[in-house]
Every structure is written in C-alpha cells, then in structure tokens.
Design a protein that fits this description.
Elements: H1 17-29, E1 38-41, H2 46-57, E2 61-66, H3 74-78, E3 81-84, H4 100-109, E4 114-116, H5 126-134, E5 138-139, H6 144-150, H7 153-162, H8 178-188, E6 192-196, E7 206-208, H9 211-229, E8 234-238, E9 244-252, E10 258-270, E11 273-279, H10 286-302, E12 307-315, E13 321-327, H11 334-341, H12 345-353, E14 373-380, E15 382-383, E16 389-390, E17 393-394, E18 397-399, E19 406-410, E20 418-419, E21 426-434, H13 437-450, E22 452-454, H14 460-467, H15 470-474, H16 481-484, H17 497-511, H18 552-558, H19 560-569, E23 574-577, H20 579-587, H21 594-607, E24 613-618, H22 620-627, H23 633-643, E25 649-653, H24 666-679, E26 683-686, H25 693-706, E27 709-715, H26 729-741, E28 746-750, H27 758-771, E29 777-780, H28 788-798, E30 802-805, H29 819-826, H30 837-853, H31 868-871, H32 875-887, H33 894-907, H34 917-930, H35 935-941, H36 949-956, H37 970-975, H38 994-1005, H39 1010-1018, H40 1020-1033, H41 1041-1045, E31 1053-1059, E32 1062-1071, E33 1080-1087, E34 1090-1097, E35 1118-1120, E36 1125-1130, E37 1137-1138, E38 1143-1149, E39 1152-1157, ...
Helix pairs in contact: 5-6, 8-9, 13-14, 18-19, 20-32, 21-23, 21-30, 24-25, 24-39, 26-27, 27-28, 28-29, 33-34, 38-39, 39-40
Domain Pyruvate carboxyltransferase: 573-841
Pathway: Carbohydrate biosynthesis; gluconeogenesis
Modified residues (N6-biotinyllysine): 1151
Length: 1186
C-alpha cells in the first residue's frame, strides 16, 4: 500500500513537507468542529471528491482508496492521503471497491475514524457496515440492521403495509417459481413489472404487457438478477402507466428524530436509471405532496432511521402515491436538494454519524424550507445515437460551465483523462438553481451549451433536446417519457469544429498533404495581397459591400427570355470570365478552393460588373470539390452568390449526365437543375459529349423547367476547313437547328480542344448569324495552340454576342485566351466589351500570386502546342493526361501517348471529345502505351483484350450515340456478351426514388439537405466519402490555403475564421516522437492560448515495401495487371471455377477503371492480391489452372 500525499493545490511548490503539514494542521486546528480527525471514502469518481470537500470544511483529514486502473483518477489527488486497494492484478477494477476486508484494513492501518461508503459499491452492504464498526470506526450511514431491514424491496414493502402506507398491488413476498407469477396475473391482470428483490439500477426488471411474454420475461429477469446480485429472487407488482417517480430526502439522528428535506422529481429516466432530476416537483398537488412527505417520515421513524436516506414513491395519473422503497444511502441527485434547502447533506451525515442530533445541527422541520427550483443533469460519456452506448478514450478538450447558480460535481472530467470501460460513464453532475422552474431550465441549457468536451462522445446533445421538449418545459414528464418520445433523439450535435480542424492540421504536420495530385509545397508562402480598385477619378472604390449593377438584374427581374433579347441587342461583344472554373480546371487540376474565390469576390463584382457571366460551377469542379478539396460544392455556390449578386453565374451541365460522367435518370437531371437554380446558378451551358441531341435535350428541358437561362451547346471537334473531316459546316448547322428547335435561349459553341481556327470561326459564326439573326451566340475555346485571342476576335467580328476568356495570369495554353488581350483587341471598336482594363489588371495581380500558391498542381506546360490540331486533346484533359502519365510511369513516353490518342480516336470512330468521351479516348490511349499496343494490335487482339471500363461503357451506348455510328467489328469484339444500346441510356434507367435516397441519408448521416440529395444522386460513393471525411476533420473550407497544403513552421501563428466573429488563433508548438508501439505521434498546438494535442497515425512508420511477382507473358495461365493501379474489387476467390472472359478483378488507375478477365476457363489458383493492393504493370494477379 503506497501513500500519495496531495496537498499541492493548497501549498505552493518548494515548501518542505514539515512546514506544509504544520500549516495544514494549524488551519484545521483553528477551525475544528469535531473530535474525529480522519475520514476514508470507500468509493471512486465524483462522490469521494464531493465528500472530501465537506470533510475539509469540517477540518477532517481525508483518505482515498483506488484500484490500479484508477491510479490516475482525480479523486485520488483530491484526498490528503490515497492508498491502492490490493496488489496489481489481485482484484478486477470493480472488485477492488467491493473488497471490504482490504478497505477496512487500509483504514485501520492509517488511523481512520470514519468511513463513508458514498453510493453504489458497498453503500448498502450491511456486512461492510458491521465490519467497520467491529474495527472500532464509525460507519457514515444507517445501522447495519436498518440496512438489512430496508435492503430488499420485499422487506420494505412489508414495512409500508405495516405503516399503512399505500403500495402497488403485488406479490406478498419473494417469488421464485413461474407458477406463482402466473397466479398473480390471473388475479390482478396486466401489465405487471417483475423486479429483482435485491439490488437496483434497473437490472433484473421487466415490464410484461401480455400473457405470451410472461414466461420469457420471468426467466430473463431472474437470470439477470442472479448474475448481477447473486440472488435470483424477484417480486411482482401491478405496472403503473406513465407514473411520476417522486423521492423524499430524509435525515435521521441517533435520538429518534427524523426530518424531510422535501421531495425530488426523478421521473426522467431511461431504462429505470435517472437522467435528469428536479427539486421540488413542479406539478404535484399540495395535498399529494404533503401525504408523500408525511408517509416518508413515518416509514423512517418506524425503523429508527439514522443518517441520510431516500424514500421513493410512484404517483399515478390520478395523483395517488405508492411506496416503492427506501434507499439507505446518499443519492446521486442529493445536490439539488442541497440547492433548494441550503443544507449540506453530507456535512449532516458526517456529524450525525459522529453523534450530533438534528436539533444541535439546527435541522428541525420548522427550520427547513424550500427556495426556488433546482435541476441536475448527469453528463456522461455515452452516445445517445447508439442506444447510450458508453464511449471510451482520452478526453482531448475539457472546458466546463460556470457562473451564477451553476454547481458542478465532477470526477474524472479533465483534459487528458482516459475514460475506461471499467466504471460508470458519468463525467460530471451539473446542478443549477433558480427562483422559478423556467429560470433554472434556461440556466441549465446555458450551462450545457458552455461545456466543451472533445475526444469522447457525451449525452449533452440529448440533454439539450430533452430540456427543450414541450413536455419537459411543462414539467409533466413520466418515468417512460424518454422511451415514449423518439423525437428526443433528433439531436443537434456539437460541431466540434476546432478539434476537428486540429486533427487535420496534425495529420498534415506528421504526414504531409494528402491532397491528390499535389507535388511538393507551394512556391509562394506569403500572404496573398488583395488589390485596391480606383474609380476614374482615382478615388479608392469602397468594396465593403458587393456591386449591385450588372446583367443579372435582367434575369432576376424580367427572366431568361428578356436576358437573351438584351444580350442580342447589346452592341459590344460581352466576355465571360472562366477563371473561377475552366481556367483553374485546365491549369491547376481544378484544385482552387472556395476561400480563394471569396477573398477576391467583392472586387470582382466591380471589375467585371459588365461581364456576360462568371463561369464558376459545374463540370469537374463539382465532384473535385468533394473528392479532393473536401468541400461542399453547394456551399461554395451559395457563398459566392452572396458576395457576387450582380454578375450572372454560369455552370457547365453535361446534358443527360448532369455533372456525372455517365447518363442518369431524367428526373435526377430535373431535380439537380432545380437545386442549382435555387442556390444561385443563372445560366446553364448544356452540352452532350457526342452532340447527341436527344441526350442534350434532357438537360435543356430540365433547365427550362427550373427557370434558368438555357444555353444549348454544340461541341466543336476537328478541323471544319478540312474537307476530309466528317464534322463540317453542314454537320454543325444541322445540330444548331435542332438546338434552336428545342427552345434554348442561347446557342453555345464549345471548342474544348482549342482547334477552332480564326477562319473557321468566321465561317461558322457568320453562317449561324446569317440564318439566325436574333439568336444570341456564346463561344468558348481553349488557347492550346496559341490562336485563342485571334479566334475569339474573329467570332466577335462575325456576330458572336459573348466569348470566353480568363484573367491574364490564368490564361493561355490549355486555359482560355487572355481577357486583357481580347479587351485590348476589341477596345474602341463596335465590339468593345465595356470592361475597365485597369480593374482587370488589378484583379489579375491577385491571381498571379494565387497561381504560385497552387504551384504544386501545375502541369509544367511552357508554351502553346499547335500539335493540338493533330491530336485534338481537350485543354482540361491535356494537363490531366500529363499528370496521369507521370503517375503511371509513362511520363517519358508522353510523345507516344499523344500519338496513341490520335490512334485511339480513330479506333473509336473519330468521336467528339469532351468529358466523358475525351476520357474514353484518353483511357484507351494510355492502355495502348502501357501495353505496347499499336493501332493494328488493338484491332487484331480485340477479343482477348481487357479494355478499360470507360471504353466498354462507350461501346455499350451508355454515353449516347456517336455521329456516324459505332466502329464495327471492334465494338462487338470488345463487348463480347455485353449489351448494346441503340437509344439514349436514360430510357433504360428507372427513375430515382428520391424518398428512398432521403431516408438513406437520414439514416446514415442523421440529417440531410435537398442539395445533399442531389450530390448523392450524382456521386453516391464520392458523397459518402466526403461526409465521412467531414465527420473526421470538419469543414476545411475555412482554412487558409497555405495551411491546407503545407504545415506551418514551428512557432508560427495564424488565424482561422470559423464564421463571422469566431476566430481561432493557432500556433504549432511541437511534433512528438514516434511511438514504436502504436506508430503514432502527438502533435501539440496552441489554440486561443490553450495547449491542445492530437494523436496522429504516422503513415510513414507503417510503410511496407512489397515486391510482387511478375506474370510470365509466355504462360497463358498467369494473369497479370494490364497497367499500374489499385485493385478496387476482387470478383473471385482462390479455388473458384471461372469461364473464359469472367471478371477476376477491377483495377483502378487514377480515374480509369478496367476489368481484368480470365484468359481461359479453369480454376483460380495462387491469388496474389487483395482489395486495395497497389500493383504495377504485369504484376501477377492470379493463375487460372485448366
């Protein structure tokens, strides 16, 4: 038994032990009110601390006992002395506190005068009380005989009947046989409750409503009672429907005096365990109250009750009361009685045990009164969403409530405390006192909101839900209120934003950035400076509020048709700025974050107030936001709309695909467009990757129904001036006519590869303008070949109403042409865009800095590539292909990849190339390079090749019907037995069941928005992964980009604004050493002046280099990986029988998936991979043994 003296809180460090003890003893000697000197509390958690505080006020020395598992618990530190119970491993964590002989031995060895049992454990054990008294010490509680008399419910019931106190009809005594229970129900009927005769806490209790349930309920109750208390005896009584649970606090002395301290309403329970308690009862008639109080005192006097105890009653809906039992101990909820009476019950307990009378203590009934109301909430580490399952782990953050009328009785609630599964889950009791019930209810709510407990789940959200329910507000709760009220579990959980943010920053500090595609750290690490704009008089423009002047007002006030007419009537050529979408998609892998748009948004609203639109949403930005930036694309849209109210927002809609990569049911597109329009999109550029007009019309109709501006778009491919190409002027004019006929407001021309030459632009736009003089025309291009500015000027001169451009530092090459260059080219002419060139340059200063910040995502392009006229790779795809090629080890073969792209396009029938069809061509090209396949090889080996999934989906018809049809026999050879669609895919798909989706999201994530539904329908797996990420790391969109991509320096301070007026001041303090046992590191941050730590798995510590066996190309039984990638799914097990062509595994390489199929029939042997394994090209997957 090792003692630990804990006077650190009262005495400063450095004072020697002799002086410290002398000072302590002098303080007690000068305030002593008792002869006894030392008290031991045979308990743990919060109740010993509660008792120690009163004991110190009574000038007693205090002794704690603790189990080995509790050696770091707070109650040990709050005592003057603390001793471990037994040797390590001698007792289980709970058995240590039931080791009565060992505890008495410790008390005697250290000259203890009194032992207080607290509640639970040994508090109702008469044998323990006898042992204490036999050892010459005082037991702070009733006499052993009284405990025996009241210790089981049967004895207490007999006592009540003797005292003429009402009881619920029940069996006359203990029941051991089922037949006795059945006899009772035959006489009194149902419902009944079966209770364990010994013990409490809800164990051994069963409510039975009908005969069919009786036998099983009896057997379970007796079994549970025997397991919990060592005695399977039960008794049975009539079950009261929705009663109140009222208990009376009693105090008795050794001279036969008993007083009550009024009642508590403990009706709010879960599975017979109290959750929230109130004192006094709010809606108890005075007549019933007095009857209960009188009966409680009479019962206690009949057994000469000594010390504190509680008489418990049920009150039915007719306000009739029935005695249940007397608990011969202090109760958890005694604190609220102390608050309304001003009486320290524990002090009275100790002094009564030492011989004081109630009169000596001033505790006569006439002097005890009630002041106001008090409520107690038990804050526990339980998860209400999982049936109050106890949670365990380390408390990372602990900040408690306080203030007027708030009392906290805590145990192990502190930062760094480890919550184990061994004990009760209570962290702290929060008791509030107020002059009225409503005041104390609101005070408790305020206190609950003040708590910040992180690292473990708590029941605080449930308590808040409970306290705001109308039934609780009225004070009319009953014992099964929680079980009867499922809406209590519609919880508003704490967002835990700060700790989640630190979890991400900690992971970043240990493992580096996890953002896909990032290579290295940003070149620019300073603060991005937002420029100042000036008006024509050189005065500084006030941009504290966004500009309100712009083209959007026409859409909002007059509608899409009026907007189209106004644009057509405009004399100049308007410009759409693509910087917020296609420019960063083409140059920076779509990685620009929401915060970086918002930082320049208000300035942009002024500089581009006369712009046609900002292209800022849809296309790849939608899924990339969730997939790689961990942002909600809808949240981005709403935030941007708020700060740019004047400029129309344009999005890219992939026709019948929405923003997905394959066709979806028509009602999915309708629903998506409705949500997009509601949340801020004005103009929808609708296109189809194959110019399949039936696919295109699905999107256009959805936009028209939603009330948006529909820009029906034709995709430009190849060279219209080349007579050998199938996409000629006649083809394009035919598609335009169909778009006009479907009712589009605007005609869009989408040149996704930048192959629209100036002369072709003049011919195409001029022809359209001549045929459709009132049709607004909007042209989009990429500057891959370097001719973008010339082509857009040619479009303007030929009659285009708007052309696309990007801010200068984000323009050129695979992006759009320079906005500054186009404005300068058209300035002063009849086509002048009406934009302030100086303002454009100032905005560009911001983007020049930002591009350096996003340098880890640069594709490394150094200039224009006129070769695009040959390979026709779209601008956005070109950078992606370069990156993907390097990731798959094909970087040195980039020239071959470009050539293979041309050949792949020819193999597929010279198709229009834009997402998703451009991906089909790209996947086939990479597949050919990776497997060293020529054009002829593909044709000759088509029946044996495992084509990428996207190629097979294209051949199936899932992307629509290509102009000129599918290439045969390649299509049939590649598909083999797969289906072929000859109509648009949406006609084969069942409509989305939106109610089903909503229910699934509610079940999976607790709540959802209608935009969540739209996201899930587009990308189910991506959305689920995004939600899981945010549950772990929170909303990262608020984090400044440089700290999103790279860790701060040690000691560097930075700010994060969670929302308006809520700023976190964060500083990285240290990164701890690697734990060899766990592979983790502790990362220490200072946040708002408070040191916080997060535990991070060091991914580098777990890296295992595995060299895989290569497949022998000469052995047809060996199946190798066709290229580098990750095994995302295995379709077979070792020993399985397969037929030729059966799928073995699905391989994913970047965004490309392909099926690995069996080369011949046989049995699977030597399966060398498992799901999630990374493989290189030709790594052995398995063998197929004939």
């Amino acid at each position: 038994m090792k003692a630990s003296n804990n006077n650190d809180e009262a005495i400063e460090d450095g004072v020697d032990t002799h002086t410290r003890n002398t000072v302590h003893e002098r303080l007690r000697a000068n305030s002593s009110v008792m002869k006894a000197k030392k008290i031991l509390v045979a308990n743990r958690g919060e109740i010993p601390i509660r008792i120690f505080r009163t004991a110190h006020e009574l000038s007693l020395q205090t002794v704690a006992v603790y189990s080995h598992e509790d050696r770091l618990s707070m109650h040990r530190q709050k005592a003057d002395e603390a001793y471990v119970i037994g040797k390590r491993g001698e007792y289980t964590p709970v058995a240590a506190y039931l080791a009565s002989d060992e505890i008495v031995k410790i008390a005697k060895a250290h000259n203890v005068n009194l032992i207080h049992p607290g509640y639970g454990f040994l508090s109702e054990n008469a044998d323990f009380a006898r042992k204490v008294e036999a050892a010459g010490m005082i037991f702070v509680g009733p006499t052993p005989d009284t405990i025996d008399a009241l210790g089981d419910k049967v004895s207490a019931r007999e006592l009540a009947i003797k005292c003429k106190v009402p009881v619920v009809p029940g069996t006359d005594g203990p029941v051991e046989k089922f037949e006795e229970v059945k006899g009772f129900t035959d006489k009194h009927g149902f419902p009944i409750i079966i209770k364990a005769a010994f013990g409490g806490g809800g164990r051994g209790m069963r409510v039975v409503w009908k005969q069919e349930e009786l036998k099983e309920a009896f057997e379970r109750a007796t079994s549970e009672a025997k397991s919990a208390f060592g005695n399977g005896t039960v008794f049975v009584e009539r079950f009261l429907y929705r009663p109140k649970h009222i208990e009376v606090q009693l105090l008795g002395d050794s001279h036969g005096n008993v007083v009550h301290l009024f009642e508590r309403d403990c009706s709010v329970q879960r599975r017979h365990q109290k959750v929230v308690e109130l004192a006094p009862a709010k809606d108890l008639p005075e007549e019933t109250r007095q009857a209960i109080l009188n009966d409680a005192v009479a019962l206690a006097k009949s057994v000469n009750y000594r010390n504190a105890g509680t008489a418990e009653f049920l009150v039915d809906q007719e306000n009739r009361h029935y005695f249940i039992e007397i608990n011969p101990r202090i109760q958890v909820e005694h604190t609220i009685t102390e608050e309304i009476t001003g009486i320290d019950i524990v002090a009275a307990q100790i002094q009564i045990a030492a011989g004081a009378s109630l009169e000596q203590l001033g505790l006569t009934q006439d002097r005890i009164s009630v002041r106001g109301f008090a409520i107690q909430c038990r804050i526990t580490t339980e998860d209400p969403t999982k049936g109050f399952q106890p949670d365990t782990g380390r408390i990372e953050v602990y900040r408690s409530a306080g203030g007027n009328g708030v009392r906290l009785d805590g145990g192990n609630g502190f930062a760094g405390a480890v919550i184990t599964p061994h004990y009760d889950s209570m962290l702290v009791k929060c008791s509030c006192h107020g002059s009225t019930y409503e005041i104390v209810r609101r005070k408790m709510l305020r206190a609950l909101v003040e708590f910040r407990i992180r690292g473990v789940k708590t029941n605080i959200p449930f308590l808040a839900s409970l306290l705001t329910h109308p039934t609780f507000i009225s004070g009319e709760c009953w014992t099964t209120f929680i079980d009867d009220t499922p809406e209590l579990f519609a919880l508003v959980n704490s967002q835990n934003r700060a700790q989640k943010l630190l979890a991400y920053l900690g992971d970043l500090a240990v493992n580096g950035s996890q953002i896909k595609g990032q290579i290295g750290e940003p070149k620019f690490k300073g603060d991005v400076i937002v420029p100042t704009l000036h008006d024509e008089q050189k005065n500084v423009l006030d941009v504290s509020e966004p500009c309100t002047k712009g083209w959007r007002s026409i859409i909002v006030e007059q509608g899409p048709e009026a907007f189209a007419k106004a644009v057509r009537a405009n004399k100049g050529c308007l410009i759409m700025d693509t910087t917020w979408r296609d420019a960063h998609q083409s140059l920076l892998a779509t990685r620009v974050r929401t915060v970086d748009f918002l930082n320049i948004a208000k300035e942009t609203s002024y500089a581009l107030s006369n712009a046609w639109a900002l292209e800022c949403w849809g296309g790849a930005t939608f899924d990339v936001a969730m997939r790689f930036l961990y942002e909600d694309p809808w949240d981005r849209l709403r935030k941007m709309r708020k700060v740019v109210p004047n400029i129309p927002f344009q999005m890219l809609l992939r026709g019948a695909n929405g923003v997905a990569y394959s066709s979806l049911p028509d009602n999915a597109i309708t629903h998506f467009c409705e949500q997009a329009k509601k949340n801020g999109v004005d103009i929808f550029r609708v296109f189809d990757a194959l110019n399949d007009v039936e696919q295109l019309e699905v999107g256009v109709k959805a936009v028209l129904k939603a009330g948006g501006v529909a820009e029906g778009t034709v995709c430009y491919s190849g060279d219209m001036l080349n007579p050998s190409k199938k996409y000629n002027l006649e083809y394009y004019m035919g598609v335009v006519e169909k778009i006009v006929n479907m009712g589009a407001h605007i005609l869009g021309i989408k040149d996704m590869a930048g192959v629209l030459k100036p002369r072709a632009a003049t011919m195409l736009i001029g022809s359209i303008r001549k045929k459709y003089p009132d049709l607004p025309i909007h042209v989009h291009t990429h500057d891959s070949a370097g001719t973008g500015v010339a082509s857009m000027v040619a479009c303007a001169q030929a009659g285009a109403d708007a052309v696309d451009a990007a801010t200068d530092s984000m323009s050129g090459m695979t992006s759009q042409p320079s906005i500054g260059a186009i404005v300068a080219s058209l300035e002063g002419s009849e086509f002048d865009p009406g934009l302030n060139a100086h303002h454009l340059r100032m905005i560009d200063h911001y983007w020049a800095q930002l591009r350096l910040l996003y340098s880890p995502f640069e594709a490394g392009l150094t200039g224009p590539d006129p070769e695009v006229y040959e390979h026709e790779i779209p601008g956005g795809q070109l950078t992606n292909l370069i990156f993907q090629a390097s990731q798959q080890g094909l970087g040195e073969q980039w020239a071959q990849t470009k050539k293979a792209y041309e050949q792949a396009n020819d193999l597929l029938g010279d198709i229009v190339k834009v997402t998703p069809t451009s991906k089909v061509v790209g996947d086939l090209a990479q597949f050919m390079v990776s497997n060293k396949l020529s054009y002829n090889d593909v044709l000759e080996k088509a029946e044996q090749l495992d084509f990428p999934s996207s190629v097979l989906e294209f051949f199936e018809g899932l992307m629509g019907q290509p102009y000129g049809g599918f290439p045969e026999p390649l299509r049939s050879q590649a598909l083999r037995d797969r289906r072929k669609m000859d109509k648009r895919p949406g006609l084969y798909l069942d409509p989305v069941n939106f109610d089903e989706v909503r229910n699934k999201l509610k079940e999976q994530f607790g709540s959802y928005t209608e935009t969540d539904v739209a996201s899930y329908v587009m990308y189910p797996k991506v959305f689920e992964d995004f939600k899981k990420w945010t549950l772990k790391f929170g909303d990262l969109s608020v984090l400044p980009t440089k700290y999103f991509l790279a860790k701060p320096e040690i000691g560097e301070e930075f700010h994060v604004e969670l929302e308006k007026g809520k700023v976190l001041i964060i500083k990285l303090l240290a990164i701890g050493p690697l734990s060899e046992q766990t592979g983790q590191r502790e990362v220490f941050y200072e946040m708002n002046g408070e040191v916080r730590q997060v535990t991070v798995d060091d991914q580098h510590a777990a890296v295992e280099n595995k060299s895989r066996k290569k497949a022998d190309l000469g052995d047809s039984s060996q199946v190798g990986a066709p290229m580098s990638g990750v095994v995302v799914e295995l379709r077979v097990k070792e020993g399985a029988e397969v037929n030729k062509g059966d799928p073995i595994a699905i391989l994913s390489a970047m965004k490309m998936e392909m099926v690995i199929s069996a080369p011949h029939s046989g049995k699977v042997g030597e399966l060398s991979v498992k799901e999630s394994d990374s493989v290189d090209g030709q790594d052995l997957i398995c063998k197929i043994v004939k």
